[in-house]
Amino acid sequence: MDNVRLWMVPGTDIEEKAREQIGGLSQLPILAGPLAIMPDVHWGRGATIGSVIPTSHAIIPAAVGVDIGCGMAALETNVTQERLPDNLGLLRHAVEQAIPVGFNFHDRERSLDQVMRLDSTGVFEPKLKALRQRFRDLALRDFIPDRPRDKVEQVIWKEVGTLGGGNHFIELQTGDDGRLWLMLHSGSRYVGKTLADVAISQARHEAEIRGDVLPDKDMAWLVEGSESFAAYIEALTWAQDYALINREMMMALLWNAIKPFFGPDLAWIQMVNCHHNYVEHVTGPEGSYWLTRKGAVSAKNGEWAIIPGSMGTSSYVVRGKGNAESYYSCSHGAGRRMSRHQAQKMFTVDDLIAQTRGVESRKDNAVVDEIPSAYKDIDAVIQAQSDLIEPVVRLKQILCVKG
């Protein structure tokens, strides 16, 4: 494809729907350079998931996505798998009690002050208070109709430190050396989706006014210098920060939940926290532009990133090689090889049980669409981008919590 750089798993191809989407995106007049397509690529709203999109003086809100700032956090501990309790079901129950999942959030009666006190370190209080003040000042907030705005302001602080559903997860994993890691995947929850929906609608409206001819209405963009663009950047930056703190808060709650099972000598060694649905402004020898990573992670030289597989397979902590051809990026996961609907039709709960043997997790019809066979081979995806990253730690799930 013209104006596209591809990293593909050998012997695989891009689904037709995603190929058409890449073709349309690659012809947009706002591109500042070729698209970079990662080996976990599959169709998504506005742009294929697994895309790195450089744009000049414009951003496509739907390409950023509705889960602004979605990403991964992984924490290495000082204990090994020999310290795991015999009953992992009790451990999973403790995690599920500590962190709301799916559409749930912290108790309605719980105030922001009470949510902040869930973290014994106290580091979140100034962060959350500053984030709350910034939300009150958001220009894009004024575009939200009163009823959604009321709901957002009711749940926004009760969702800090909550997981969500879909492919979001909390896991305990062991590394090749037996060391225990904590890993989780989540984003900006309801507030991020609301802000994104407002911006996507605004971009479509402005595209109609300009008379833009688009291969897909979700490829509409906001123009730098406009009031709507400035409001979106402010909201986008805020939502990315919210998502980052959401993962930090969840990791603190997860830590508090597992600590009684391992004793007082349990300690952190290091943590990685990275977005994979976000925008950054880039200025370099090649010029100034906006870089959208939709299902892609920053992989600058020496930078650590997280590439998960699926429930029941491996995940990786990797180190970036700083490849400019991919805009210093790598994949964000294994990538789906079939839709959720297809997976639900093709597989049964018995299949899920077989493919997640040895992993303490839910094994019911509600999560069949997350079965490992619905995803690409994570080891092949890692190998396909060997010029972008090098593995640091290979991890294997022992416990998985999903919404």
Please, could you describe this protein's structure?
- The protein has helices at residues 16-26, 61-64, 88-98, 112-116, 124-136, 146-155, 189-210, 227-262, 340-346, 349-355, 378-383, and strands spanning 4-6, 35-42, 49-55, 58-59, 71-80, 169-175, 179-186, 222-223, 268-275, 277-284, 287-294, 296-298, 304-307, 314-320, 329-331, 389-402.
- A hairpin with a 6-residue loop joins β13 and β14.
- The strands form four sheets. The protein has a seven-stranded antiparallel beta sheet.
- It has a single domain (4-337, 375-402), classed as tRNA-splicing ligase RtcB (Alpha-Beta Complex), CATH 3.90.1860.10.
- It is globular, with a radius of gyration of 21 Å.
- It is built from eleven helices and 16 strands.
- The protein is α+β, with helices and mostly antiparallel strands and 403 residues long.
A few lines on this structure:
By secondary structure, the protein is an alpha+beta fold. It has helices at 16-26, 61-64, 88-98, 112-116, 124-136, 146-155, 189-210, 227-262, 340-346, 349-355, 378-383; strands at 4-6, 35-42, 49-55, 58-59, 71-80, 169-175, 179-186, 222-223, 268-275, 277-284, 287-294, 296-298, 304-307, 314-320, 329-331, 389-402.
Helix/strand layout:
Layout (H helix, E strand, L loop, with lengths): L3 E3 L9 H11 L8 E8 L6 E7 L2 E2 L1 H4 L6 E10 L7 H11 L13 H5 L7 H13 L9 H10 L13 E7 L3 E8 L2 H22 L11 E2 L3 H36 L5 E8 L1 E8 L2 E8 L1 E3 L5 E4 L6 E7 L8 E3 L8 H7 L2 H7 L22 H6 L5 E14 L1
Parallel strand pairs: 1-2
Antiparallel strand pairs: 2-3, 3-11, 4-8, 5-7, 5-9, 6-7, 6-16, 10-11, 12-15, 13-14, 14-16
